[in-house]
Amino acid sequence: MALIEVEHLKKYFKVASGMNHAVDDVSFKIEKGHTMGVVGESGCGKSTLGRTIIRLHDATSGIVRLNGEDITYASGKRLRKLREHVSIVFQDPYSSLNPRFSVEETIKEPLEESHRFSRKQLNERTEELMEMVGIEERLRLAYPHEMDGGRRQRVGIARAIALEPEFIVCDEPVSALDVSIQAQVLNLLMDMQDKLGLTYMFVTHDLSVVRHIADEISVMYLGQLVETGPTKEIFKEPRHPYTKALLSAIPSIDILHPMQRVQLMGEITSAINPKPGCRFAPRCLFATEACNQPQQLEEIGTDHFVSCCRLSEI
Fold first, then answer.
1. What is the pLDDT of residue 261?
2. In what order do the strands lie in the sheet with 298-301?
3. What is the structure's pLDDT at 252?
4. How far is the C-alpha of 245 from the C-alpha of 219, rounded, in Å?
5. Using CA atoms, how far apart are residues 33 and 167, in angstroms rounded to an integer?
6. Is 251 exposed, middle or buried (0-12, 13-18, 19+ CB in 10 A)?
7. Contacts of 3 (CB under 8 A, 6+ apart)
8. 79: Cβ–Cβ under 8 A, 6 or more apart, which residues?
9. CA Rg value for the chain
10. Whose CA, among 4, 141, 201, 264, lies 20 to 30 Å from 42?
11. What backbone torsions phi and psi does residue 284 show, to the nearest 5 degrees?
């Protein structure tokens, strides 16, 4: 059963020269207990997509459903109640934490705002969360500047799961961390998913990371999805030219079977007042006049969709 359903979601931002189509007609579903990886280069709209789904941004149009309930335009008490079911882990654990709050105060804040816990329960829940994410008791009164990036991100995860949400947007949660710490945080997120039955949308530009954690992958380019499908299938047989280019850029230590790099040429299309048609066409080796027409995701296999009018020819 799908926990999250997104239908024709759009999020536009008004800028001096027009409208920035940050998220433009995106549709997908995320099954309960699954992880959907959303990948693409910087500026493609993947973070905006995640924040719009959990209502940190208001949608321009479209529908977002949580457990079948339309939450797109929830407000007031309904929106506050919704906040207990969805959460987010931010990219930079330093800037996302209040520098004046200790670890204890940071974790307690959402618990206190919910008005569901007594003082004793607040302390007990805080201790439980610290233990769950591996934060030592000695750091209870520590401040963000007194901890390394890995511990700060663990505090962010503890805060995100404090009210036992069903759905969490992980917005590049390991990209600001040292490589040696990234695997620890990824394993922690996966452990939390198993223990708590969480559903993730994992936003990243690192395909090696998403291969490790995601059940499905959605590839995003300038506000639109160009390919989506099961992780194993996307890595085994990518179909969209942009997906192929992304995968070819993954570093490899296999010197005997090096992957052929796909070098992208041409200018990146602006997301401000974009023209109809494939936005990847100016950089695509296979583009023709037909690519100037509006493109649609079409199913080419079980739960595998691609947006490319030249798919049968490449």
1. 73
2. 86-89, 167-171, 199-204, 35-39, 216-221, 224-230, 304-306, 298-301
3. 65
4. 11
5. 9
6. exposed
7. 30, 31, 32, 66, 67, 166, 167, 199
8. 55
9. 21
10. 4
11. -90, 135
Q: How far apart are CA 307 and CA 314, in angstroms?
A: 13
Query: Going along 222-273, which residue ranges are E strands?
Result: 224-230
pLDDT digits (tens, 9 = 90+) for 291-300: 999 899 999 9
Cα 201 to Cα 41: distance, rounded to the nearest angstrom: 16
Helices (H) and strands (E) in the chain, counts: 9, 12
Q: Hey, what amino acid is at 122?
A: L
pLDDT for 253: 58
Q: What share of the chain is helix, strand, coil (3-state, %, to 5)?
A: 35, 25, 40
Weakly modelled stretches of the chain, pLDDT under 50: none
The predicted pLDDT at position 127 comes to: 95
Residue 275 is predicted with a pLDDT of: 86
Kindly report the three-state secondary structure assignment for every residue of 120-181.
HHHHHHHHHHHHHHCCCHHHCCCCHHHCCHHHHHHHHHHHHHCCCCCEEEEECCCCCCCHHH
Distance (Å, whole) CA 292 – CA 278? 6
Q: What is the per-residue pLDDT for 258?
A: 57
SS3 195: helix
3, 30 contact by CB (below 8 A): yes
Task: Quote the pLDDT of residue 259.
Answer: 62
Rounded Cα distance, 269 and 163, in Å: 41
Q: 122 and 108 in contact (C-beta within 8 Å)?
A: yes
CA nearest neighbour of 153 among 89, 209, 109: 89
Q: What is the dihedral of CA 57, 202, 239, 24, to 10 degrees?
A: 0
